[in-house]
Amino acid sequence: MASEIMTVIVTGGASGIGESVSRSIIERGGNVGIIDLDTARGEDLAEELGTKCFFSKADVNDEAQLSSAYFYLKECLPDITGCVACAGIRPVRNPIQEHSLEDFRKVMDNHLSGTFLTCKIAGLDMASREFGSIVTLGSALAVRPGPVLGYGAGKAGIVNLSQSLAVQWGKKNVRVNSVCPGWVDTPFIRQQEKEGRDLSPITKITPMGRLIESQEIAELILFLLSRASSAMTGSVVVADGGITLAGGYLPYGEIP
């Protein structure tokens, strides 16, 4: 994999797991197109990563914006070999009796609809060239329930969508796989800690006794983007430190 030159579009590529993916591809001599809503962070990261990295602002829920950003980056880069759908917003943790339909739809749309549009735009382009690999971001909550209702439902939908597209595009040599992380040490999590959230229940219930590093997820994503995983499509890879085996619901709060 070290000698394989990738050209990858990464949505949500300016922070968290997406940033780790972007950095890792550049470190391996690849090319990256970052799509993100945070213009300042995206432009700064692209400048830092150098001449093989480009940035374009877009909302993954806006098909016209996302398509424009994708094809702009396509013009800037060599032939695109992969796409990673990392864009996402924070979950809403309210129980259903306190959970508004507006909040539910907002989280669902950002994760599920945003992934749908990302796959539609990137996947159709790849299918026209009969080559490509897409990696979507599910969650441990796609395989184990929790009380972040819109987020969990959206991530489960992403897994199902990815498997459906893997079948649809299999003969076009476009692979679609999902990674389902557990609790990853990202700015989202650390911001919650700054706001007073105790993270110790998470690490206590995780068999490995720690949060997952975003770089660990990035390495797995790079494997799925590479020729080393050429026989894999429609796969769901859980990378959670074992938390889904140990009762992943509890770190969110008490069971209703």
Could you provide a short overview of the structure?
The chain has helices spanning 16-27, 39-49, 63-76, 101-129, 149-169, 187-194, 200-205, 214-225, and strands at residues 7-11, 31-36, 53-57, 82-85, 132-137, 174-181, 184-185, 212-213, 236-239. It is an alpha/beta fold.
Task: Characterize the structure shown.
44% of the residues lie in helices and 16% in strands. With 256 residues, the protein is of the alpha/beta class. It has one domain: 3-Layer(aba) Sandwich (Rossmann fold). A 7-stranded parallel beta sheet has the order 3-2-1-4-5-6-9, with helices on both faces. β5, α5 and β6 form a beta-alpha-beta unit. α3 packs parallel to α4 and α4 runs parallel beside α5. The chain is globular, with a radius of gyration of 17 Å.
Topology:
Elements: E1 7-11, H1 16-27, E2 31-36, H2 39-49, E3 53-57, H3 63-76, E4 82-85, H4 101-129, E5 132-137, H5 149-169, E6 174-181, E7 184-185, H6 187-194, H7 200-205, E8 212-213, H8 214-225, E9 236-239
Parallel strand pairs: 1-2, 1-4, 2-3, 4-5, 5-6, 6-9, 7-8
Helix pairs in contact: 1-8, 3-4, 4-5
Mean pLDDT: 93
What is the beta-strand fraction?
A: 15-25%
- The domain count comes to 1
Helical stretch tally: 8
Q: Which secondary-structure class do the elements indicate?
A: alpha/beta
Largest sheet: 7 strands, parallel
Which residues sit in consecutive blocks of at least 5 with pLDDT less than 50? none
Give the CATH H-level superfamily.
NAD(P)-binding Rossmann-like Domain
Reported by name, the CATH topology is: Rossmann fold
The total beta strand count reads 9
* Molecular shape: globular
Write out the strand line-up for the largest beta sheet, numbering strands in chain order.
3-2-1-4-5-6-9
CATH architecture: 3-Layer(aba) Sandwich
CATH class: Alpha Beta
Query: What is the CA–CA distance across the termini?
Result: 46 Å
H/E element order = EHEHEHEHEHEEHHEHE
